[in-house]
Write a structure and sequence with these properties.
Length: 248
Amino acid sequence: MRYFIHLAYKGTAFHGWQKQPNDISVQGIVEDTLSQILCEKINLIGAGRTDAGVHAECFYAHFDTDVSFDLNRLKHSLNTMLPSDIGIYRVFPVCSSMHARFSAVSRTYQYTICRIKNPFLIDTAMVLYADLDIQKMNEAAALLYKYQDFTSFSKLHTDVNNNNCSIYSAEWKKIDSTYVFTISANRFLRNMVRAIAGTLIDVGLHKIDVETVAEIIESQSRQKAGKSVDARGLSLVDIVYPEGFDVV
C-alpha cells in the first residue's frame, strides 16, 4: 500500500530534505522514525529537494508498506518522536500510481526579505535595509513568463535532463516591514528561486535594468545572473496534485 505524508519543517538545522552521508537531513530523520514505529525499513520519496537552510510550509513524501496501522495513531507517534522543527499534518493512503515528486502539478515558493531587524524572522527572512523598487522588480518578474529555459538561474552540473520550466506566476509584494516574492511553476531547478530573487533584487536596487533580465535569461549563463540570496528567506509553501489524488 502506498501512503502520502503531508508535513512541514523549519530548515535551519537541516542540510536540506535529501539524505546526506554525513549531514542531518529531514528525509533521514523522518525515514528513521517511520522505520522505528513500523518495525521495518521505510524508504521515503519526497516531492523534491530543498537546499540546506530552506524551509517547507508544505511538503509531501510517499512510502510503501504492507504493515497495518492506524493513520491517526501513526501521525501522533511521528509528531511525538520527531524534533520540534518537523511537523506531520496528515498521513493518508493513495493509489499506487501516485508519486510525491512526479505526480505534482505545480509548486509554489516564497522568498521573504525583512526591512528591519526582527528577531522573530531571524531564521526565516533575509535582512535588507535598503528600499527596493517593487514596480521595476515586478516588470522584470513578468518577463519570466516568456521563457522556458532557465539555465541562467540553475546550479551548475545538476543531474537533470533539461532546464525547461513553465512559470505560472511571479510577483513581489510589500507587506508591512517585509518584501515577499511568490513564484509558482510546474518544476524548479536547483537554486533557481534564490538566483531569480537575487537577480530581481538587483533590479530593485537599480544595479541592473529590466531589459537586462531578459538578456540574462537568453544568455543561458549562470555567471551573468545575480547572486543566490540567503537560503533562510526561502520557503516551499504549496504543492498541487491532480484533483482527488487523496481519494482511494
